[in-house]
Amino acid sequence: MPPTHTEPLGRLVAQNFEAYELLDSGGGRKLERLCGRVLDRSCAQAIWPRSLPAAAWQKARSRHIRSKKGGGHWKHVGAPPPKSQQLTWQGLRFEVRFTDFGHVGLFLEQSAVWSWLERRVARQPGRPRILNLFAYTGAASLAMARAGAHVTHLDAMKGVVRWARASFGLNGLPENSVAFMVEDARKYLKKCRKRGTRFDGLLLDPPSWGHGPKGDVWSFEEEVAALVDDCLAVLAPEGSFLFLTCHTPGVQAEALRNLVPRDRFAHLEVGDVLLEHRDDPRLLPAGIYLCADTEQPSEES
Question: Per the confidence metrics, is the pTM higher than 0.85?
Answer without folding.
Answer: yes
